[in-house]
UniProtKB/TrEMBL annotation:
Superkingdom of origin organism: Bacteria
Transmembrane segments: 403-421, 433-450, 553-573, 580-601
Name the record gives this protein: SH3b domain-containing protein
Keywords: Membrane, Signal, Transmembrane, Transmembrane helix
Signal peptide positions on this chain: 1-28
Species assigned in the record: Thiospirochaeta perfilievii
Amino acid sequence: MGIKLPGRRVRKRLVALLLLLLSSSLFGQEMSVLPDILITGRVITLKIQTDFLYSENIEVGELELPDELSLISGPIVRPYRKRVDGKNQMFNQITWALRSKESGVYTIPNAEIYVKEKLYSVEVPLIKIFNNDERFNNYPLIVEWNKNIKKTIFVGESLPLVVEAYNLEEINFPDRVVTNNPRKGEIVEVSGLGDINPERVGEADLYRVPVASWIYTPFEAGMVTIPSVRVEINGLTRYTGSLEVEVLPVKDLNETGGVGEFLISTEISESQVTPEDMFHYKVRVSGQGNLPYFKFPEIKYDNLILIDKSENESISYTDNGYLGWREIDLTLQALDSGVKEIALSEVSWIDKNGSEIFYNGSISHLNVVSVKIVSEDIMPFLSFMKTPEIISSYRMFLYKNPLMWLFLGFSGLFYIIISLFKSIKKNRGKKGLLMTIAIMPLFLTSAIFAKGFEYQGELVAADKYIDSGDFESALVIYNDLSEKLPYNWGIFVNKSILWDKLDNVANSIYNIRLAERIAPTNSKIKQIKLYLSDSEESSQKQAKTSNGVNPDYIFIILLIFFNLLVLVLIRLLRVKSVTTYSMLFLTLLFSLLSVIMLIFIHSKNRVDAGIISQGGAPLTKVPNEMALDWMTLGEGNCVYIKGEWKDDYLIETEYGLQGWVSKDTILVLEER
């Protein structure tokens, strides 16, 4: 049962509710923008038709307009007629008149209206102003310079310039870009600068896309004007404004003209040479900045002849300028013996903040001797192997000999033969079984005896060529023999020494690595490998292509424990005891461990690897002959081969550096 209110009170409450609804109805009102398509230079009208009666006094706040929009008139409050409940009534209408000389998408804060000291807020729609040639587009196309371009730089500093297109509904690139070169410097057109950035504009996802880029390097101080750029895209032609850049002078002490972050390093190919030897001295400048314009320090030397000079570089373009390295490679030869000095002069450059950076120079020493001096303790290992030594150096791992695996059944066969021996009564039959037991191991191990007697004539001829100093002829013989005797490590050792005599480091290391795969524990091979690596530190940075453990010992342990396992199993058939089961467990455990170790050693000896060939290998980040060189790996470096694509290998160094090199620059190590 409800409470009945007097009729007059009910009517008052209904009127109050109606007034409340009318006062808040403004929140449902929208501002309209006229005309439907807004064109640059033409009048833009913003209009709000309120539900407040014209008799009510209203106040309108000022619109906060962006700099690109100018206010012509407004806000203007005037009446407009509206029919309500069959009657014409007058309400308030508010209008503004705007104009813009530039196309674009603009946002304006909400309009504020005060009625009886109460604030009402009306959202202003997104203002999209088009040029005459794009009135059928959804959004105006804008082409501008990137807003992050530095406006103040130093003389010589490389300045990246990027032109971007705004308000693209799809990622499109220009049909044509036309520019004029600025004065007082050099400009280089590059690609890849800038990023594609998505932007939320109103309810749409649009893109800001770099459409053209350059790197400008000024040579004089003063104000520089970068001319306007014309861009043709999607059938439209747009122009950027000109760009003003202030170029500051630098100190006279900046001999290199460098502006950026740089590192200078030197490298000398040999520490000891004879007057007949040529060697390389390299100066490398690496870093980021105006790298192509960096002047190398002066190189000073006495009593050395310059045979050749070359320059190499690997430079890429970034949003901070040039990135990479440049290198001078001098081929020199000494006139006489003695200790020679090669000096690199002191220089300086500035960073991008104007701070001066000093390089104190460097001095490299070279020992020129009449005859190359090799440490006495390594001399015996660098001597050539003679014919008898080579014939006896034939080596095949036991586990690679199929006949040796028959020894796994030796204990079972021996048990059967002994059983037969006990059952045979005649002496002649017993003698036959004993002969079988004695001959069987000799037959099974016949495949591991030395091979190569049939090639003794060729080996002797190679010895004579070596004694006479005809290394090329000896190498021809050994190349042929290495195909016929792939498991003779002595042949590969002699080939390695021959290639070293012929100054081919890559092939020398390649052959000693093949020898190491055949005889991983041989001391002669280890010493030659260390000699070719120059130092223990350099050797540690090379890929590991051999386990360094002789798998024959592991295989013999496997044979012993497996045969013991067979005997224990035979005993288990007759005697079941704790001792027998313990022996079964131990023999089975050691047999499994031996198999696991053999598998590990075999996988290590089969790792895909190669040697960087003579001349080095340019390393790139992508497998493409057009890719920019990232760095160059020196000849003789041993690397892992992780994959391949067409004419390139994906390689990885022992210290984790990865990249792509051409297959022509890799000597692939074959399995032995």
